[in-house]
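Usage

Read records sequentially. Each one opens with the input sequence:
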Amino acid sequence: MNADFDRRFLMDWLTEEDPLRLADLWRMADTSRRENVGEDVHLRGLLEISNFCIRQCAYCGLRAPNMQLQRYRMTEEEIMECARKAWKLGCGTLVLQGGEDPGLTRKAVGAVVRRIKEETPLAVTLSLGERLFDDLAHWRRAGADRYFIRFETSDTELYRRIHPSLPSRSSARLAILEALKELGYETGSGIMIGIPGQHVHSLVEDLLLFRSLDLDMIGVGPYLPHPETPLGRTGAPSPQSFSDQVLNSETMVYKVMALSRLLCPEANIPVTTGLATLNREGGYEQGLQRGGNVIMPGITPLHFGRNYEIYPGKVRFLEITSAVEEIKKRIRSIGRTVGSGPGERQRHVQGTLPGRVSLE
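and closes with the structure output:
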């Protein structure tokens, strides 16, 4: 299967609008999901431990120049209280997410990771931005299992536009992903769908990059504009510009999820909170039927979480226990089972490159 055929196949599906044709894509993705990762849906408790950030990303409400945001950083004991709750709720993994915060020091993060591993059976995923190799190595030794960092786009010009505060470069994130693999982490990355300036051809390259990176986790969600950001003030992409601009639509997110499953059949692919924000009534269910096998219920206490605003209107729960039980009910309603344990990636075929599938 040559690269040109890959690109043609992906482009055809990304520009397909016929619901009957798209139903074929959903079926292919769901079949691949069933055959490669099974019926389990794994729960990852998402804990947003800090909204401090030194970056000036043009799309993100946590960006350093946003003076409207009340900043916070959770203490070790506050994190541990939430970790124990995640375990009791049936989550197999705790995801510690934060802005790129120098206050989350190598020592402090290492100490809390070590405690989580000693006091609970949870796997630990970190998503703390671009960090030094020595930080990543220290946290791996402390027991961290996974690290997630979005490369965001394979289009270098678009990356520069959404990251005006260089020296941050897309190549730096790719280097971090390689370093994470060397350190023995399960590695995850992803993109936003519909960010202003994104074109279909760059989405094709993003999907091929997912496969070439051999990712263990793939996160794709819609770009949702924040009014306190440069991109948010310019407005969302319009339907009239579809030939040039990728829409931040629910359907486009499903397309990218489904194609990600076909290209990377063994990867863990979450139904993101952004997607659930677009479709609060059925986003989880439809995402799970179009390639997804992970849900990450937010367990951040509300008084912190309301200030973790990458985009406005994010799904938040007043009562976390009942919300997680509702998610479990929704998983079972489509005939799937709630997974147990850490839900690490299973490599079914030893000695071969995973993620290579025939798209004919």
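Summary fields computed downstream for this record:
- Residues 349-360 have pLDDT under 50 and may be disordered.
- Residues 19-37 form the longest helix (19 residues).
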